[in-house]
């Protein structure tokens, strides 16, 4: 406030000084141009120049303020438009989540029409129309989404393919995913969606081709990849079941790399197929070799099912496992079976007893009962048959109630 008073006083003093100077001597200015002449007091000329400068400054300031006003108004309008867009889009999403498909589609299309460029709302409309069973309309909205947002081609195409897979339009989804794979051969989500499609088409040969790249880019966790790998191997075997022989089985097995071949689940399935094809000796070599690298009770269990040509060697291998890995109910069951096939009744009885001491094993009861019948011990055999039957009933009830 004091500053304003000082400035005002100074202006009054300055005006007084100027006024006294003008009164004392107004000055004189004479301007001539060709036949034109202008005469005026000096102070009038200076006042005119100052007035013109002030008017120019005022005009510029007015235009600047108008520019600020219109820019501010434009920003306010954009904020208001964005707020309305967000509000209406959120409403569309809410309707979609609530399962109000028709309302969601209408709301999404209205926003998309107003903004003329709304990827999310075209996707909402596509999802809603798909839920209403309007597949052609859904594809139309997705095509519009591609037009308004070309940079989102991968995301839109993946959504389109997934909806088509879900509606079992496999013939429409396949070319979309194949084109995406050709452009982006290492894109995890494209490859995983293609895997889902090939599973529906029962095309396990194509899935097998994708396994190396899936493993390389780590599209799945180790556990997920192992499950997929086993599923592929099993289904390849099933698809060739009618013409499956050892050559065909070996060909499928060799299509997996060495490290994959060492996985227990795959080894077990492969061994089971060898047993089905009556190639017991080849299965015996596979199990014995694999067990040197990594011993597994599950794999050892299959060893007990073999009808090897060299049964004594088979027994020695299993006995060495017992020395190396110690007491194990599965291993005792395996040893009992091999000893029984070698007609070593005393050893077989001993191994089955050891197995049953460690666990109330259903198979051990039946195997032991069968051996006792052969040895003429019917009463004890019936007791073990009864125990095995009781365990079987308990397992059946547990499965039915689970």
Mean pLDDT, all residues: 81
Largest sheet, spatial ordering of strands: 1-2
Major β-sheet annotation: 2 strands, antiparallel
The CATH class label of the domain at 310-393 is Mainly Alpha
Order of helices and strands: HEEHHHHHHHHHHHHHHHHHHH
Shape annotation: elongated
Approximate helicity band: over 70%
Briefly note the structural class of the backbone: mainly alpha
CATH topology of the domain at 310-393: Serine Threonine Protein Phosphatase 5, Tetratricopeptide repeat
Please give the count of helices: 20
N- and C-termini, Cα separation: 87 Å
The CATH architecture assignment of the domain at 310-393 turns out to be Alpha Horseshoe
Radius of gyration: 45 Å
How much strand content do the residues show?
Answer: under 5%
- Number of E-type strands: 2
What's the layout of helices and strands?
Layout: H1 2-24, E1 29-33, E2 36-40, H2 42-97, H3 101-115, H4 119-131, H5 135-148, H6 153-166, H7 170-183, H8 188-200, H9 204-216, H10 222-239, H11 246-254, H12 258-261, H13 264-276, H14 280-293, H15 297-303, H16 311-325, H17 329-341, H18 345-358, H19 362-374, H20 378-401
Helix pairs in contact: 2-3, 2-4, 3-4, 4-5, 5-6, 6-7, 6-8, 7-8, 8-9, 9-10, 13-14, 14-15, 15-17, 16-17, 17-18, 17-19, 18-19, 19-20
